[in-house]
Amino acid sequence: MNAASPTPEHCDLLVVGSGAGALSAAVTAAHLGLKVIVVEKDPQYGGTTAWSGGWMWVPRNPLAVEAGLVERIEKPLSYLRRELGEKFDESRALAFLNNGPRMVEFFRRHTALQFIDGNAIPDFHGHTPDAAVGGRSICAAPFDARQLGDRLHDLKPPLHETTLWGMGIASGAELRHFLNALHKPASFWVVTKLVLRHWRDLLVHHRGTRLVNGNALIGRLAKSAFEWGVDIRVNSPALRLLQDGGRVTGAVIQTPQGETSIHARCGVVLATGGFPHDPARKQQLLPHAPTGQEHWSAGNRGNTGDGLRLGESAGGVVAGALVQAAALAPVSLVPRQDGSVAHFPHLIERAKPGLIAVTAQGQRFANEANSYHDFMQDLLAATPAGHKPEAWLVCDHAFIRYYGLGVVKPAPMPLGPWLKNGYLKRGHSLAELAQACGIDAKALQATVQRYNALTQDGKDRDFGKGETPYNRIQGDAIKATRRGLRNPCMGPIERGPFYAVKVVMGSLGTFAGLRVNDHAQVTDAQGQAIPGLYAGGNDLSSMMGGHYPAGGITLGPAMTFGFIAAHHAAGRDLDNSPLTSNTLSSPARTLSSPDSNTLSPRTRSGVHARTPLHAGSKSGMTAPLHTHQKAHTMYYELATMTLPFGTAGQAATNVQAFASAPEAQGELLGCWFTDIGVLNQMIVLRGFATLDALQAERERTQQSANPFGCGEIYQSLEQHSYKGFPWMKPVRPSAESGITGPVYEIRTYGIKTGGVQPTIDLWEQYVPARDKLSPCVVAMVALDGPLRFTNIWAYDSLNARSQIRGEAVAQGIWPPKGGPAHLTTNMVSTIAMPTGVSPLK
């Protein structure tokens, strides 16, 4: 037994490290009744998570389910199986997929950690079967750090180079406002308010207090930890583990007052962030860093492999057979005024239209819009033996002033300081830029010339840029549409001066960590669990085996396995946890083994049943969709585009950009592609509060040189105006209404003269009963063309549609009695499926 400290302390669980994985375990354990101490060697808590984008990959999470994005567990499991290949560990994958949704629901129900959804964020590899176009990602909601009180300044701020004057900027709409601040008054006003709030924070608190991204995740976890009595200590590195009879019982901690022994009754969780700044381990596990110095991670500088060494000292083993030992990312080296060098991760601008990446040979080597990890894998593959894996990101003046480049911010921020310190290279011609960078000038000119030619029809025949949903969402569909570009990731590089920034081998963190079992227990060389020792975050060897199938595959598993480890340490069964017993039921079956046949209840159509609307309902919400109270009348436009084969994905992206443009009126509600009926048609439903708004938007569309952003795509376009039945609630997206398909039937009936009001009255009487079988999305009377009305119905499947329609007739609840007498024989039915951008899922 190790020698005890002269003044030992005692707790139930000791957590070493303070990133997301560490604090997930700490907060969960505290809720399970354990006394928890967290020790962090840095002066501030948060680790690399505090610098990160904060996204977590958690398939089947409750936010997706509530938005109608319901999938069986087999889908993400199949995606992982295909992506990970021989590194796929089904047992660990199931532990993650089964418990990830439980983890999310626990935190949002019982702690200060609240989430925003990433329901439009696709998996990285859209060509892989069972990749999702959304519904598998979440992020922490923005957080007011003033709630941390006197522990505010112990929280690590975001990486300064990724901020504006120290202010974090959230991805998505907030980032678009910053990019458009000089071009759109609405964006200027949003940015002005955020900047003024930040300046006030600097004056009062000497740092920003509106936290976003990974900083918000840590802030909310810390708030939760403090509320439950977790003791978070900074400047307290763990020196060595304490053991008794083969069991880990605590650790010796270095404090400003000297060494202290902390005995932990239930064990120790090692979560110190992996080894991104441990030269010896990098030399051992990263072939591109033969001396351990040729890798510049954007991870926290304090992550030097302490947890791995502590685990090895107790018999643990660091996994060494991963496909890649680090989560690779392109990094540029940023000189600071104090002489230090920051490592800036290039995660955003590579996919925007108007940028390419080239080697010193002046040639492209990769799809620039692919994930940061894939991009660097391609750079490694393209680098000849004996050469440094380096590349240059190249753009023109218009690009850098709108998007920025690396640490260089867009206009009106100046370029001069970065040109002066050598970070940014400039040339008035491509040849001059090539000379400044040491690039083959003729090859660079030829590469840009070919790339510009490819942008004309939007097809990257060399590397396929813009072909996957992930590529496209990383691009800029709105900007591309306005410029008449056919690919949101491709734009010409044509007007000087031209600019470039060098990127080198870096990472967001490391994958290779301590081997563990499904409970996050560290295992020895024989695969046996070491009692009392757990690993979390990047100290736990990645379940992805060195692959990178989606954004958030570090933080999602980190949060989940922290949740799992806390339960095991507390001796609590996850399937009967008091933290999850009253939470949202899983929408699809939970698997305990590859051969499990235990299924959740199903509907007659074979689709998993959801929480009932009311007796017999299948809409998945807890409040009725329609009421007999008079609702505000809603106006709608139904647009139908006939498209060439294979263009639906691009068209949907363009429709979303067109409908969400600042000058657009109304709201995109549905975007479907026909499956039965007239094929190759995209049907777009938009809603408007007033008829004037509808007419104004119709005029904008008709006067546009590129209607719906699809003027060069569609073969024909029809637009029709409607007025909703006055007693129906306005149509809302699935996330608000609970109505989901994925099968939608769009039916149009001709109405006889004098039949409009009787039809409206009959439907008001009969729809509530019909809604109990399947929801009516909308019923609306046409304001143009022949007298008619259109109604849209949502079904779980085509089989469900057939069964429900038959049952409605058999029960005598549909069609409305006397209703057909008011209709003509002009009746059309179309079956359509939602595209990835459709708010009605």
Key descriptive features of the protein:
841 residues, alpha+beta, eight-stranded antiparallel barrel, 22 helices, disordered N terminus
* Uncertain parts: 1-5, 582-590, 592-631
Distance between the termini: 60 Å
The whole-number mean of residue pLDDT values reads: 90
Q: Main β-sheet: number of strands, strand sense, barrel status?
A: 8 strands, mixed
Quickly count the helices: 22
Task: Give the overall silhouette.
Answer: globular
Strand content: 15-25%
Question: By helix and strand content, what is the structural category?
Answer: alpha+beta
Overall radius of gyration: 28 Å
Total beta strands: 27
What is the helix content?
A: 25-40%
Describe this structure in words.
Strands 1, 2, 8, 9, 10, 11, 18 and 19 form an 8-stranded mixed beta sheet that branches. An 8-stranded antiparallel beta barrel has the order 20-22-21-27-24-26-25-23, surrounded by 4 helices. Strands 12, 13, 14, 15, 16 and 17 form a 6-stranded antiparallel beta sheet that branches. It is 28% helix and 21% strand. The protein has 22 helices and 27 strands. It is of the alpha+beta class and 841 residues long.
